[in-house]
Design a protein that fits this description.
Elements lengths: L1 E2 L17 E4 L4 E5 L7 E4 L1 E3 L2 E3 L4 E7 L3 E6 L10 E6 L1 H6 L8 E4 L2 E5 L7 E2 L7 H9 L8 E9 L5 E8 L3 H12 L5 E2 L2 E2 L2 E2 L1 E10 L4 E5 L2 E5 L7 H15 L3 H12 L6 H13 L3 H12 L10
Parallel strand pairs: 11-18
Antiparallel strand pairs: 1-9, 2-3, 3-4, 5-6, 6-7, 7-8, 8-9, 10-11, 12-15, 13-14, 13-18, 16-17, 19-20
Amino acid sequence: MEAFDKKSDPFIEKRDEKFIKYTFENNGQMYISSVYNEKGNEIKYTIQNNIVDLLFNKFKIEKIDNKQLILIELNNNKISPSSTRIFFNREQVYLDGLTLDEKDIIKEEQDYLYIENQKVYPKFRNKDNADVKSFIQPFVEERSNGKEHLSYSTFVINTDGKVSDIKIHHHINKSYDKNLKKAISKTNGMWISPIVNGKKVKVLKEISFHYIVFPDLKNVNGKIEVNKKTSDITKSYESLFKQATKEYLRGNLESALKTYSKSIDLTSNNINISIQKNIIYKKLNDSLNFDKTKEKIQSSKFNYVLKK
């Protein structure tokens, strides 16, 4: 941002550290977000005679091309010395300037799979839902049984926008998992693949739902008492579980086992950790630990995850 009147100090503000994304869509909707893979808050806008009306203010389009958009703030529908000139970089130009971490690239024979990150991520396009989580939620919202749960899954988005290789890593129950996979499959064709070095690439997308249990409220002599429920899925547990799963997906099996083991003491219900370990033990041909974890899974409500 800079002052339109160059006679005064032109520099107003430059935002280098805070990511802010403005998404203008053709239907008169604009979204503002500080999270790279979310659209954020919706704002209506109109364009007429090269003037962008954002309801709270109007701006004249000074320049728009394949790299940049420049808007000039209007005061009382006119450009004045106190007007502000605002520069927006196109998203792909911004993304091309970011550095890609090698750990986010998985080699698959002659192909590459990119783990979703701020430089490489897919865009969800659906006329009725701003993001994929709001699309999926109706399919699964009645199946968490009103208890605290964590659902964590990954799937591949191919260059044609279709999904494949849907994997659930943290399970809730058979019905929930089934409907979650169904909902993810229905997003076929709703994705725009990211671009790396001018080419569309495959990306591994993660999605999670953390269902919480609200505290009990009681009215005692006119005062509200709050009885908080003890959480079995803390932020630390969730973070470690996701970290371990990504290590597993990258092929770092021993490291994944160690990280999963760190998360065991953070929850009393660690059957999901056993499920993930069981998969790794099979890949490592560790029959002793594979049989131990399999036996534990067979005696749990998650025995449906074992292949017949």
